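Annex B. Sample input.
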Amino acid sequence: MNLKQALRENHSIRLGLAASSWQEAVKLAVDPLIESGAVKPEYYDAIIESTEEYGPYYILMPGMAMPHARPEAGVNRDAFSLVTLQDSVTFSDGKEVSVLLALAATSSQIHTSVAIPQIIALFELENSIARLESCQSEEEVLAMIEESKDSPYLEGLDLDS
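Annex B, continued. Sample output.
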């Protein structure tokens, strides 16, 4: 599963959106995946239920969250969406997030060995959150992903399949 290709194919980059709660922000991140058929609508419910039970375990760094649920919670195919918010939302643990990269993975193996390295590569770019927040177009986001392709985290990954 190639991050850049998945975002492009699913038309799942949405920039500068407004959300009044973390639940609404997660909905905005999952909506493109529902619209593209990558996940069923109940995938959103599974993320909310899981967050309420375990807390926002998918906040990976200050300002960034990767909302996701288990494959059996309605994932039809591997996909990503990327959403930036005009203003941060605050999760139940007090952490603020303005960039959400939702993940739909058909297996835990894809989640761990293919999706996570690509996400780390993107977010290890200098000022990645601020840069994503300032992106005005899908092309700018895709250019950042392209810039991250030389990351050591991606060595040995076959991202063309």
